[in-house]
Design a protein that fits this description.
The structure holds two protein chains of two kinds.
Chain A: E1 11-12, H1 17-26, H2 32-39, E2 41-42, H3 45-57, H4 59-62, E3 68-76, H5 81-93, E4 96-102, H6 108-113, H7 118-121, E5 126-130, H8 145-170, E6 174-177, H9 198-213, E7 219-221, H10 223-230, H11 232-235, H12 238-244, H13 253-267, E8 274-277, H14 288-291, H15 303-320, E9 324-330, H16 333-342, E10 353-359, H17 363-374, E11 381-384, H18 388-397, H19 410-420, H20 430-451, H21 455-461, E12 464-469, H22 476-485, H23 498-506, E13 510-519, E14 522-533, E15 538-546, H24 555-569, E16 574-579, H25 591-594, E17 598-602, E18 608-613, E19 624-626
Parallel strand pairs in A: 1-2, 3-4, 3-5, 5-6, 6-7, 8-9, 8-11, 9-10, 12-19, 15-16
Antiparallel strand pairs in A: 12-13, 13-14, 14-15, 16-18, 17-18
Helix pairs in contact in A: 1-2, 1-3, 3-5, 5-13, 8-9, 15-19, 22-23
Chain B: H1 3-18, H2 39-53, H3 59-64, H4 68-79
The chains are: A alpha/beta, B mainly alpha.
InterPro entries (chain A): BF1531-like_N, FkbH_domain, HAD-like_sf, HAD_sf, HAD_SF_ppase_IIIC, SGNH_hydro_sf
GO molecular function (chain A): hydrolase activity, acting on ester bonds
Pfam family, one (chain A): FkbH_N
Chain lengths: ~625, ~80
């Protein structure tokens, strides 16, 4: 059924894979769409390597296709070439344009502790630290309790030293891995109770490793969990370990590479934001328009009804962690809403759904409208539908939408959606907890807008409170998240890690702002981030970004007034703005002009530079309280 | 299954794994003749053969293969 090794949420690789790849390779100009479609299928280890070779050879042609470039260092205590060769195609599946810098096999300490190592010199964006139990001294039992404890501590100290070395020498966060338990046990079930068995050593190591990584800015690839999902006897291949020092079975490589690719995408802020749900035979069994409210299958009494209820429960759990829910169904609107208001077993209610579209328009058009209403890209959508024809239409029209192959049995839907990992994340905070509610509030704000006659009245009716503060530790994770996720309202599209943000916050030459906005419908949380370089005469804007959900609320005028006042107080006479065009930020091309800046340069790269004279600048009166 | 059928299947697998457009089978083919045949693709080749024929080689058997003919002999013995 849903064998994780086969990546069941993806379409199977086409039978003519090699012919297609050959055509892509042979063409003078790269057909990026064809290559990206090919890597969206469930490629096996050989196909991944062959596709990766094309990705790496054409990396220049792929740059600028809206992909996020990333240089990954790999440091491993086992053979990692197979991983390095498979990754570029797997990362492309997640919109990451990957280049790999592989340290020599077994040279972890040298690569990370020596600032002159070729890995450190390559300045990777992140470093995968793939260590195995053998290299960490955890592959043999230590049945003396004190020695068992010391063994785990030693292993963790070693990992900590390598992580610190990566930060200091390569300036990059580390992706650590949990260790998968071996299949073999020494005593049997008793292994888990006895300090110093391999199972105990690995469990202790994993628990403490995860604790040490939380909040550090480093990341985790949970290999122990991956191995457990497929089964340890499938994951481990003793012969390959002995013959070639491969850390897992060849069949595990596509799954490993896909999950690592997904993690890299999450690190770059590319996680999906919204789950769009079909209704008939997805949220309940049967057709509401034909079967009526008493005829659909939902909940107690039938396996099918229970399975559909489980889909609803999972959707609600995702919503609670910040994933926005929407509905897209071919139905009469009134019929589609009936179960939400009138069926006692329904877990999902109308208030959980940020955008509800039930009509007879094609689903791709409806998905475009959902994305537009939520002010997110269609590439942030996941579309769950039991109907293969609808899935095919959406894939055809909107290849950037994630469309899991959920099969026809509703009992598989939750597992396949969960396994696909569309909502992989590297941090979780209060902003995430409240996000779904925030989007629902936005829909209410949109409704309020239609009830007032002009914008000024609308703004006044919102009771806005805008809070501007310098960067601090509490805001760091969210600042980094915004810096990585914001594409449209982002003047320079410079990306920063949490470590970068910490360094900037501590830099006396920088002026930083994190901006929050609340109104009578709710707290929007942190919605804007700015970084200025202070100069004696000029303060130069390095980063100015804002969440699109507060567009048109005059927040940009409030933050300009704030930085202008600070710069003036410090004796500066001008603010300097810079616009660097990207594939997605055309909406802010005239941003500085709108704020009263004068253009000073048109650069060859399409960028522009702007200046604001602080002598003549007059701060506006704004419809919000500033704190 | 006779030896010719086995070599036919092995040839197909080699084309896939080593990304070859065509390949004329001979017992003497080895990593020295086929450029794409390195230590990594060798592992995938062995695993693909095992999957297709439904058994696993021992480490000793794998270490004993110096050319494709050895592998085909071993397959024939396993499925006999």
């Amino acid at each position: 059924m849903s064998d994780p090794f086969a990546l069941p949420w993806l379409l199977p690789a086409p039978a003519d894979f090699r012919a297609r790849l050959k055509a892509i390779r042979a063409a003078d100009s790269l057909d990026a769409g064809a290559l990206r479609a090919l890597v969206q299928t469930a490629l096996d280890a050989t196909q991944l390597e062959q596709a990766s070779r094309v990705v790496s050879a054409r990396i220049g042609d792929l740059a600028g296709a809206g992909l996020r470039p990333l240089k990954l260092g790999i440091v491993a205590s086992h053979t990692a070439k197979a991983i390095a060769y498979a990754l570029p195609a797997a990362a492309l599946r997640h919109e990451v344009l990957l280049s790999v810098e592989l340290a020599d096999y077994g040279q972890a300490a040298q690569a990370l502790l020596d600032p002159a190592s070729s890995l450190a010199q390559a300045r990777p964006d992140a470093i995968l630290l793939a260590l195995d139990a053998q290299a960490l001294g955890l592959a043999r039992p230590r049945l003396d309790p004190a020695e068992a404890e010391a063994t785990v501590t030693r292993a963790l100290d070693y990992v900590a030293a390598l992580r610190a070395g990566a930060r200091a020498n390569a300036g990059a966060p580390v992706i650590v891995q949990t260790l998968s338990t071996p299949v073999e046990s020494l005593f049997g079930s008793y292994d888990g109770q006895l300090a110093g068995t391999v199972r105990w050593l690995i469990a202790e190591f994993n628990t403490r490793l995860l604790r040490s990584v939380a909040g550090s800015g480093d990341l985790v690839l949970d290999v122990a969990f991956l191995a457990a999902t497929v089964g340890l006897a499938q994951w481990h291949d003793a012969r390959l370990w002995h013959d070639a020092k491969l850390p897992f079975a060849v069949e595990a490589l596509p799954l490993y590479a896909d999950k690592l690719g997904g993690l890299l995408a999450a690190f770059r802020g590319l996680s999906r934001k919204c789950l769009v749900l079909d209704l008939d035979n997805t949220l309940w069994g049967g057709i509401i328009g034909d079967d009526g409210i008493d005829g659909i299958q939902l909940g107690q009494g039938s396996g099918t009804g229970e399975a559909h209820l489980a889909v609803q429960a999972f959707a609600l759990d995702l919503r609670a962690r910040g994933v926005v829910l929407a509905v897209c169904s071919k139905n009469e609107d009134s019929a589609a809403r009936l179960p939400f208001t009138g069926h006692s077993e329904m877990l999902l209610r109308e208030e959980h759904i940020a955008v509800f579209l039930a009509n007879w328009t094609d689903k791709a058009s409806n998905l475009r409208q959902i994305a537009a209403t939520l002010n997110i890209g269609t590439d942030a959508l996941v579309f769950l539908d039991d109907n293969p024809a609808e899935r095919a239409q959406v894939r055809q029209e909107l290849p950037e939408v994630a469309v899991p192959e959920v099969g026809s049995n509703p009992a598989d839907f939750v597992r396949i959606l969960g396994q696909a990992g569309y909502f992989e994340t590297v941090s979780f905070g209060d902003e995430d907890r409240g996000r779904a509610a925030m989007y629902s509030a936005n829909a209410e704000r949109a409704a309020a807008l239609t009830n007032v006659s002009n914008l000024a009245d609308y703004h006044a009716s919102l009771d806005m409170v805008c809070t501007i503060a310098p960067f601090d530790d509490a805001g760091r994770a969210r600042i980094a998240q915004l810096a990585n996720k914001s594409n449209q309202f982002n003047l320079t599209t410079r990306r920063y890690t949490e470590a970068d943000i910490a360094a900037i916050a501590a830099d006396p030459e920088r002026f930083t702002m994190q901006v929050r906005l609340a109104d009578r419908f709710g707290d929007n949380g942190m919605i804007s981030v700015l970084i200025f370089a202070r100069g004696a005469e000029e303060w130069r804007c390095e980063t100015w970004l804002m969440s699109c959900r507060v567009l048109g609320r005059r927040v940009e005028e409030a933050v300009l007034a704030h930085v202008a006042a600070a710069a003036r107080a410090a004796g500066a006479t001008r603010l300097i703005g810079e616009y660097i065009p990207s594939a997605k930020n055309a909406m802010v091309r005239e941003h500085f002009a709108k704020l009263g800046f004068v253009k000073t340069a048109d650069r060859a790269d399409g960028g522009t530079e702007w200046a604001l004279d602080l002598e003549t600048y007059v701060p506006p009166t704004l419809p919000m309280i500033l704190e | 299954m006779d030896r010719q059928e086995i070599t036919g299947i092995v040839t197909e697998i080699m084309c896939d794994v080593f990304d070859l457009d065509e390949l004329e089978y001979s017992d003497g083919l080895s990593a020295e003749v086929i450029e794409e045949w390195d230590s990594l693709s060798h592992i995938r080749f062995i695993v693909a053969v095992e999957k297709r024929f439904g058994f696993r080689f021992s480490s000793a058997e794998i270490e004993g293969f110096s050319k494709v003919g050895d592998l085909v002999d071993s397959i024939a013995a396993h499925i006999a």
